[in-house]
Amino acid sequence: MLRRSFVSIIAAGVLAALPLAAAAQAQTDPLPSWNDGATKAAIVDFVAAVTTEGGPDYVAPNNRIATFDNDGTLWVEQPMYVQLAFALDRVKAMAPDHPEWKDKEPFKSVLAGDMKSVAASGKKGLAEIIAATHAGMSTEDFEKIVTDWIATAKNPETGKLNTAMIYEPMLELIDYLKANGFDVFIVSGGGIEFMRPWTETTYGIPPENVVGSSIKLKYEESDKGPVIMRLAELNFVDDGPGKPVGIQSHIGKRPIAAFGNSDGDFQMLEWTTTGPGKRLGMIVHHDDAAREFAYDRDSHIGKLDKAMDAAPKEGWHLISMKDDWKQVFPDQ
């Protein structure tokens, strides 16, 4: 009887300790939303290698640079880029002051909700939309417009806030890298002034660590004092081969780790991983239609074709959303 009671007590103690052990294990895992496997191991092994003093692959903290694409790498880019949704909303908001848009393309199609015709207007039409909605105001005014819009803007497919449709595993990865002495940057084809108002709140990445496409700016005197005005002229496109140029211009150092999701990130990955020493290149592969979206080679947004073919040869790791991530979004 005594033996049975003793066994029962021990068993109860073990069972009670199991949740505590699980919690302790979760606390020691820097990437709890990642499934154990080759991809997660590659990240952990890389970080250990470049942060171990005296090791052959050690990298001093001032050279631990990691770059992340934004659209499709840190948050959802389907069914359209978030900045495009912003521009379309701006057309609608500005329409009362532009009655001529009712008969002028591509604005006419935007106001009619005819996205096929908007798409058919091509780069010229998009440039007109961006010029009309992103220029002709001060940088402070534009920042306020973006800040107010992003606070309520929702994904048209899910109805969730865009800022809620960020990838939990990538947030963990950013925090993990920062905890290990990395300086983390966003390097995106999106507008630099569009991203800077919200990246610190959303990702913990400050505005000075954002590299993106830009339009020309001009310093002017006004009745309220000096302002920097946004002009309707393209300054720099931070996409494809522009990304390494943007990195050099803004950061001044070659990254040792880069993360993207599309062919637009090919040159950033190539520039990063062909440097000397230990390097890491990773591509988020959208292969989870159940929890997000499934697309790659034939997608009109976030096309992943050339980079996917090059990955095995270049040593880049494909991150499978379906197989490598326990969860996709923070609320799952």
Describe this structure as you would to a colleague:
Helices cover 43% and strands 16% of the residues. A 7-stranded mixed β-sheet has the order 4-3-2-1-5-6-7, with helices on both faces. By secondary structure, it is an alpha/beta fold. It has a domain at 31-79 and 161-324: HAD superfamily/HAD-like (Rossmann fold, 3-Layer(aba) Sandwich), CATH 3.40.50.1000. The chain has helices at residues 2-28, 38-51, 82-94, 107-112, 115-120, 122-134, 139-150, 168-179, 192-195, 199-203, 242-250, 266-273, 306-314, 321-324; strands at residues 65-68, 183-191, 210-222, 225-236, 257-260, 280-285, 317-320. Pfam families: HAD. It comes from Microbaculum marinisediminis. InterPro entries: HAD-like_SerB, HAD-like_sf, HAD_sf.
β-strand percent reads 15-25%
CATH architecture heading of the domain at 31-79 and 161-324: 3-Layer(aba) Sandwich
Provide the CATH superfamily of the domain at 31-79 and 161-324: HAD superfamily/HAD-like
Q: Which outline best applies?
A: globular
Question: What's the mean pLDDT score?
Answer: 92
Strand elements, count: 7
Largest sheet: 7 strands, mixed
Instruction: Compute the separation of the termini in Å.
Output: 47 Å
CATH class category name of the domain at 31-79 and 161-324 = Alpha Beta
The side-by-side strand order for the widest beta sheet comes to 4-3-2-1-5-6-7
Instruction: Write the H/E string, N to C.
Output: HHEHHHHHHEHHEEHEHEHEH
